[in-house]
Amino acid sequence: MKFKEAYVILVPEVNSRPFMRVDPAKDRSILDTLKYTCYTILVQNQVQALEECQKLVQEEGVNSITFCPGFTDKDVAQISDIVGENIGICVARGDSNNSNIVSKLIEQDY
Questions:
Q1: Cβ distance 2 to 37 under 8 Å?
Q2: How far apart, in whole angstroms, are the C-alpha atoms of residue 86 and residue 78?
Q3: What DSSP designation does 16 have?
Q4: Measured between alpha carbons, how far is 102 from 79 in angstroms, rounded to an integer?
Q5: Which of 45, 61, 80, 105 is the most buried (most CB within 10 A)?
Q6: Contact, 41 vs 9, CB < 8 A?
Q7: Prediction pTM value
Q8: Residue 47 buriedness (CB in 10 A; 0-12 / 13-18 / 19+)
Q9: Sequential DSSP letters for 46-90
Q10: pLDDT of 12-34, one tens digit each?
């Protein structure tokens, strides 16, 4: 049986830039081997995240979803409730020093 996981990345800032719209149907990648598949998907907001996570579980059979630090605990809990208790849910959060480094980079409008 193949293990399937997904990384969902929140990119809300692009909403204000017409030339940088996020389309989860296009802004994604798939790494696939005989025993492992990894999906990465960019989303603009919680609504898109909910929709994409439901699709990943129902249509692709994803076993685990990891969220970027941009998602709040409430966002993650809402998605977890929708996808079900048999799906592994993780959030990629660094320690305080690394989080500060990343925050500064994001503030510089990377």
A1: yes
A2: 15
A3: G
A4: 24
A5: 80
A6: yes
A7: 0.82
A8: exposed
A9: HHHHHHHHHHHHHHH---EEEE-TTS-HHHHHHHHHHH-TTSEEE
A10: 765 555 666 778 888 899 999 99
